[in-house]
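Q: Two folds, back to back.
A: First:
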Amino acid sequence: MSEPRWIWQCDRVIPSKNGAGRKVRREVLRELQRHHWSKHDVFSIHLALEEALVNAIEHGNEFDPEKQVRVCCQLADDLLRIEVTDEGPGFDPAKVPDPTDEQHLENPGGRGVLLMRRFMDRVEYSAKGNAVVLEKRRSADPAE
């Protein structure tokens, strides 16, 4: 399978503090709108990207001002790929309890991973667990 023809790319580094991902998130969403992605797709990507950024800043880097988060984005006509990498020790996503299990319903964590998986077409973690690749295929109906 050949690599998509990317029409827009970005590579940003942000600090590990609350709200630091806002600018890059707005930049990605602006590009999606500029290329006429559906509101549904833009909403899904917004939620998943926000979760990935919060997870990297809060759980990965633990708000350490000495650590940064790297966000690499690639946009093709029908595909968005985002990689979010933190400098934390990583984690095993398979060990995150299912927040929909009755015994975990009141646990405060684990919903972000579930949310990303529900809203994106592909969510893949690095072997170390400190990077996540999010992919979303454009919906068939751009007028959605």
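A: Second:
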Amino acid sequence: MIRERLINFFNACNVTSREMEKLTGIDRDKWNAVRARRRRVNEDDIEAFNGAFPQFAYWLTTGKTIPSAGQIKPERKNSGIDVPKE
């Protein structure tokens, strides 16, 4: 389920694997493999994701949100993601 939520994040926020590599330090090929469902998510991926996107940490691990605590899920309209572009 965590892998599916990560894939939802990629799709909703339009974040590339290359951008994820810059933000998390996890190789882009690993993120590509997650997106293609060829690789399972591990604890390093989760920790790196949570460090880069703390507002999605609770959602990633549980699928739930706590808006009053700033814990939201990514949505296309206003993800609040500011990913550095090349």
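Q: And?
A: The chain has a mean pLDDT of 91.
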